[in-house]
Amino acid sequence: MDKFPVGVIGVGHLGSLHAKMYNDIPSVELVGVVDVDIERAKRAAKEYKTKPYINIAALQRHVKGVSITTPTITHFEVAKQAIETGVHLFIEKPITHTTSEAETLVQMAKQSNVVMQVGHIERFNPALLALESYHLRPMFIESHRLAPFNPRGTDVAVVLDLMIHDIDIILSLVKSPVQKIDANGVAVVSDNVDIANARLQFESGCVANVTASRISQKKMRKMRLFQRDAYISIDFSDGTAEVFRLVDEDEKVENLAMMLGKIDAGTQKRKIVYERPKIKKLNALKHELELFINAARDNTQPVVTGEEGLQALRVANSIMEIINKQRISF
Ligand code: NAD
């Protein structure tokens, strides 16, 4: 099989990792990289044994797919160029800065029959993948994504930078329209909101309480799911998951770590089990890029579609509208 020719646009922090991963995927040829900072493009090209191109148009003549790893505010213009030349695109999260930009891209990609995958990398976190065999239907979700301050990413509010990871996961689990949002946030260090909390209420009755901060002393990326008969805790930093379930007394439990007791109430005898799902070792970035290449090569629907990227952005921007109204009224 011919190697799939790709390029990376924007070789800063994440773009360099994309270039590194593409070099590690045997079915891919990293044809070149491009960056507005030409010296940076040259350095990256040298490191990843590829060519630096002077502009996006020059690179796109030689590739079938690109990773767009430029700052979020530039995603729309860069992605538009890719779609217009019929190049499949992996666009880092958040899909764009504004909802209308994302709507335009989704429409354009559909009309041009171009595959667009959005970089919601936490969908590929081994801890979440390990829960695939569980029937997740949470009715209450609590999530915390806290990080120490880093000027990178402060071109957008923490809601679009960090919280959007959890919003995307929550939307993929709850599968119900958002009915109501309450939110609050504060710009503490940067000019954008650095810490935020949102309460999302879904039509299904599920409620998600989501907190994100980029001014914390310690890093934390946790999500807790509560549903009938189960409590599930996911640690995205450690890549681990824990499940506490109520099961019938005679049910065989595969990942049993501990039996926590029996419940004799009602007609059914049940037991409480504590499970540690088996975690597959994998590099989430490499895995998501491999799946993008497969989708682009076969022209099939990617795991995280442009439409899903748009839905997550819609919720994130609604949260920001609520927060901004409060900021203006202070
Ligand atoms: P960065 O600032 O380190 O790198 C961006 C690079 O793009 C720079 O080298 C810059 O010179 C270049 N650039 C800017 N405009 C350009 C243009 N028009 N054409 C070509 N190159 C251009 O930024 P980063 O931290 O790597 O973030 C890049 C994107 O990745 C952002 O959208 C960010 O939200 C996303 N990101 C995602 C994750 C994740 O977990 N999936 C993590 C970090 C960043």
Would you kindly provide a brief summary of this structure?
The protein is an alpha/beta fold and 330 residues long. It has helices spanning 13-24, 38-47, 56-60, 75-84, 99-111, 126-129, 158-174, 284-298, 306-329, and strands spanning 4-9, 28-34, 51-53, 65-68, 88-92, 116-119, 140-146, 178-186, 195-202, 207-213, 220-227, 230-235, 240-248, 256-263, 270-275.
Provide an overview of this structure:
The protein is α/β, with parallel strands linked by helices and 330 residues long. The protein folds into 2 domains: 4-120 and 284-305, NAD(P)-binding Rossmann-like Domain (Rossmann fold, 3-Layer(aba) Sandwich); 124-282 and 317-325, Dihydrodipicolinate Reductase, domain 2 (2-Layer Sandwich), CATH 3.30.360. The protein has 9 helices and 15 strands. The strands form 2 sheets. Strands 8-9-10-7-11-12-13-15-14 form a 9-stranded mixed sheet. A 6-stranded parallel sheet has the order 3-2-1-4-5-6, with helices on both faces. The termini are far apart. The mean pLDDT is 94. Bound molecules: nicotinamide-adenine-dinucleotide. Nicotinamide-adenine-dinucleotide (NAD) binds next to helix 1.
**Ligands, ions, cofactors:** nicotinamide-adenine-dinucleotide
Taking pLDDT < 50 over at least 5 consecutive residues as the criterion, the unreliable ranges are none
What amount of the residues lies in strands? 25-35%
Arithmetic mean of pLDDT: 94
**What CATH first level of the largest domain would be assigned?**
Alpha Beta
**Largest sheet features:** 9 strands, mixed
Tell me which CATH architecture of the largest domain applies here: 2-Layer Sandwich
Rg result: 21 Å
Strand order of the largest sheet: 8-9-10-7-11-12-13-15-14
Shape: globular
Total of DSSP H or I helical runs spanning 4+ residues: 9
Look at the helices and sheets and give the structural class: alpha/beta
